[in-house]
Amino acid sequence: MNDEDSLSYQESIEFALFHGINFIDTALNYRGMRSERDIGSVLSKLIQKKKQIDRENIFLSTKAGIIPGDIDAQLRPDNYLQEFW
Description:
Elements: H1 3-18, E1 23-25, H2 34-49, E2 59-61, H3 80-84
Parallel strand pairs: 1-2
Helix pairs in contact: 1-2
């Protein structure tokens, strides 16, 4: 769960999208929210900035119903509500 890992994830996602993969499965709790942020960065870059892929061709699945932690904000799930509500 560090910047080096995020770069690898982003490169993998970009490679997959350019090689026929169009379904991305994620959740807030994957890698302390970093996975969703990494996916968002890649999609933003490829759809909005570079216009290399079309959003309507990508399927994105995520999950809800858990209280996540946030690795970047150093928040653990057990104190998440106390910190943000």
